[in-house]
């Protein structure tokens, strides 16, 4: 199937229109016409080569929603016309214990990321959602609940699940004291989801400038990390902190905020941290942990959760040809919303 997308053709290059082929449907494949795709900080990191050399041309995008246009002969869960979604992975071994337990993101044989990775069967590079169409095996396609507005659903597939999974893993309940560091794409979703779970949520930001924004998202208060008095007063007052900072940073200013057995979970940054101090960890049995997206079943659960609790990412719709400007804005600061590409703006020609 011929399709068109926007691709980077070299490290740090601007994205430009790119015509390419999607594979012929295998018996277990679903073909999707993409209506919207969210713009994730990972897309920018990958295009820039921040996480290592990439197979260019590369079409990014792993917050994908659209409509089923065709299904393979063995597909039983989806029909033409269904509203569906695809997140950060499109395949895994389906045989290891982690796959069997719905933790495909931690597949022992390595999951297949939605873009920039060799297909398990053909070795061709996977290409992401900044395009008109995608073909994905049935097991990695999600159903969008009828209640959800499809245009605002896309960022749930990465920003949503990346923050929902640790909130569930660390068993957030009504009254759990949750801190969220950073109020960008991930952080603003972490606040909304934790609030919907009934948690007592505090946004943690460099200054007080985002206080009104944090409260509008449902946070009880904002703690400014630059205010040493406020930070000292907040010592040992959190059960869980979700750390969404997308760059190398110092966790030592945050770990003392955790109460006994509390955990700081890193979800925003892949790579080295500034040197962590063991003192607050040992004197307080505190933990530093990491978490990667969520499994397919958990992502489906999240879509239902968002429908039930009316939780949506803050979205700013853009045209496909505005992507390079959106990347520049993303690079210059943590915007408390997600850019979402309206794929109707991408001409098929
Ligand atoms: Zn992402
Ligand atoms: Zn596996």
Automatic annotation (TrEMBL):
Residues 8-341 form the Enoyl reductase (ER) domain. The keyword Zinc applies. It comes from the Bacteria. Belongs to the zinc-containing alcohol dehydrogenase family. It comes from Vibrio furnissii. This is Hydroxyacid dehydrogenase. GO terms for molecular function: alcohol dehydrogenase (NADP+) activity; zinc ion binding. The keyword Zinc applies. Its cofactor is Zn(2+). Keywords: Metal-binding, Oxidoreductase, Zinc. CDD domains: CAD1.
């Amino acid at each position: 199937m011929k399709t068109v997308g926007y691709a980077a053709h070299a490290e740090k290059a601007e994205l430009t229109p790119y015509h390419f082929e999607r594979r012929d449907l295998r018996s277990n494949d679903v073909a999707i016409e993409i209506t919207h795709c969210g713009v994730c900080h990972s897309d920018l990191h990958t295009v820039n080569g921040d996480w290592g050399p990439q197979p260019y041309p590369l079409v990014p995008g792993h917050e994908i929603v659209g409509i089923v246009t065709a299904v393979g002969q063995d597909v039983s869960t989806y029909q033409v016309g269904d509203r569906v979604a695809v997140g950060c992975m499109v395949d895994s071994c389906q045989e290891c214990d982690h796959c069997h337990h719905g933790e495909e993101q931690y597949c022992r044989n390595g999951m297949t990321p939605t873009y920039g990775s060799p297909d398990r069967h053909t070795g061709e590079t996977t290409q992401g959602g900044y395009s008109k169409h995608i073909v994905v095996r049935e097991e990695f396609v999600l159903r969008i609940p009828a209640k959800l507005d499809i245009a605002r659903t896309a960022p749930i597939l990465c920003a949503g699940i990346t923050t929902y999974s640790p909130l569930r893993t660390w068993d957030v309940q009504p009254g759990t004291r949750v801190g969220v560091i950073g109020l960008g794409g991930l952080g603003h979703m972490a606040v909304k989801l934790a609030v919907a779970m009934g948690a007592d949520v505090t946004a943690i930001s460099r200054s007080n400038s985002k206080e009104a924004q944090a409260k509008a998202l449902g946070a009880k208060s904002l703690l400014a990390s630059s205010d040493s008095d406020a930070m000292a007063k907040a010592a040992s007052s959190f059960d869980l902190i979700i750390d969404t900072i997308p760059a190398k940073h110092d966790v030592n200013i945050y770990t003392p905020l955790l109460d006994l057995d509390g955990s700081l979970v890193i979800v925003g940054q892949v790579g080295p941290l500034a040197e962590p101090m063991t003192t607050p960890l040992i004197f307080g049995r505190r933990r530093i942990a990491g978490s990667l997206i969520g499994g397919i079943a958990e992502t489906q659960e999240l879509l239902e959760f968002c429908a039930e609790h009316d939780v949506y990412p803050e979205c700013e719709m853009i045209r496909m040809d505005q992507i390079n400007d959106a990347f520049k804005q993303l690079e210059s600061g943590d915007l408390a919303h997600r850019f979402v590409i309206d794929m109707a703006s991408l001409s098929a020609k």
